[in-house]
Write the structure tokens for this entry.
Amino acid sequence: MRNKITKIKILFCIIISLSSCISKNTEITTPPTKGIFEEDSVMNLTLKINLNKLLTDIGEDRKWHKGSLIWNEKSIQIEVKTRGNFRRNPENCNFPPLFLAFDSLSRIGTPFEKYDKIRLVSHCQKDSATYEQIGLEEYNIYKTYSLFTDKSVITRLCKITYQDTENKEPTSTKIAFFVEGTDYSAKRLGVKLVEQTDTIQYLESNSFLTTQLAVFQFMVGNADWSISNKHNLSILEMPNQDYVAIPFDFDFAGIIDAPYAGTDPNLGTESVTERVYRGYCQSDAELLLVLEKFKEKEKEVKQVWQNLPFQEPQRKAKSLKYIDGFYTIIQNKDSIDYYFLKNCR
């Protein structure tokens, strides 16, 4: 009898042990939330704020305005203020770009957990589908540049529903995109961000990457940049003491052809769609090496534009035609001589 009871006890212990083991092994764990720039899917968000107060606060002493950002049914407490220079001017945009600052506690477990602040590029004009397309295409220029180098600003496309907490502005859903600040870019790459007040000469920069940047700007038809003035770019100091320019703000690019984009009278162009090479003169060998890389990337570049979501068909066709124009130029020796060799700085 005792042996029978002992066997039953042993069997019971084995069953309990196995049950505990199975329970531990089948425990459901929630995977960690990916950071905002770690995924490429379109984010759907809702921004709740007093829109009138926010959008009219565009002076030099503008303030932060409290609001909330809804992501995946979770409310993140934020503060928002308008930003930018050209697009903060109401003559150009009545819905300027924004800065979002996240509450340190409520952002935990969200894609914004690693970020104190983040930039948002908005739709510029409240009642214009064209201006939404401009923002969408600017986003795609960032994405295209990242095909060529990781020394680039990364972005994330989103659709934001704006809800006015005072109910004075109609609820609307618009295309926008988040932009990684260059301070975060430097941190991601493990390098130093050069102060905007520091002077960096062109000859101190990495020659290949700088030429690649200049050719890229030529490809998208953007002349609104300068290394010496650090205009629409920041400078990264690499471990080998090379300097690399990391560009941003592409809304004056010819591939977009924004209604507000103007030409630089010093360049002698009549339209932003006219390409002008603003790179410095290099050896023929180095320039051809850079151009060869662009030829290798042709299929990927065109795929990025072909697969851009939400782009109107007519604008997609126009974008692809503009890209085709660039590749026609770099396949022809005379065109290379004219655009790049004879007109370099």
In short: Residues 2-25 form the longest helix (24 residues). The mean pLDDT is 90. The chain has two domains: 43-180, 190-341. The domain at 190-341 is CATH 1.10.1070 (Phosphatidylinositol 3-kinase Catalytic Subunit; Chain A, Domain 5).
